[in-house]
Design goal:
Low-confidence stretches: 1-11, 169-175
Number of domains: 1
CATH architecture: Up-down Bundle
CATH class: Mainly Alpha
Largest sheet: none
Number of strands: 0
Number of helices: 10
Length: 175
């Protein structure tokens, strides 16, 4: 067991080579994702729920930068640490409403590209057609951001609440 821990620490301490900076070099490509973010600001799906979804999908995809970002944004919007800590075991945790549970099941199913009828039916009990469309868009957007941030990593821990808004504004000005 000690050998495993040492090997794990050694692997984790390897520094990754510098990759291209997508925020600097990919602004034209990222505009579409920023557009989704702008659209979602007016979504009937509440922001707190969207942050839970973003955090949970980022857990599934193991995107450290996005976990840092959405943890900070969720906390800034009033989310409790207890609910965030329990999110990876949401089915066993009493902290979530039935609507949130339906959204989390939906987000996990869409992320895994396996959406059974029972997950759809449960989601339809708690979400209007428009909300379900928006919820799906939120899930697909965070999956895309996770993959971008895994391919072209930012330093986890460096995000400050509101940083993405600055990037959105810069991108909008470049149009």
């Amino acid at each position: 067991m000690i050998g495993f821990k040492q090997e794990f620490l050694t692997i984790k301490n390897i520094e990754m080579k510098q990759r291209l900076n997508i925020q600097e070099q990919g602004q034209k490509a990222l505009r579409t994702l920023y557009g989704i973010g702008a659209y979602m600001k007016d979504s009937p799906v509440e922001r707190q729920l969207r942050e839970l979804i973003n955090f949970r999908v980022s857990q599934i995809n193991a995107c450290a930068y996005c976990l840092d970002m959405h943890y900070k944004d969720a906390r800034a919007n009033g989310e409790s640490e207890q609910r965030l800590y329990g999110l990876s075991a949401w089915r066993e945790s009493p902290y979530y409403t039935e609507r949130e549970r339906a959204a989390l099941a939906w987000a996990e199913a869409v992320t895994k590209c396996e959406v059974p009828d029972e997950v759809y039916e449960e989601a339809k009990e708690y979400f209007s057609d428009q909300e379900l469309i928006d919820l799906t868009l939120e899930v697909t957007a965070i999956n895309t951001w996770n993959r971008i941030n895994i391919a072209f990593p930012n330093v986890p821990g460096s995000y400050q609440v509101g940083d993405y808004r600055i990037a959105e504004k810069k991108s909008a000005l470049a149009i």
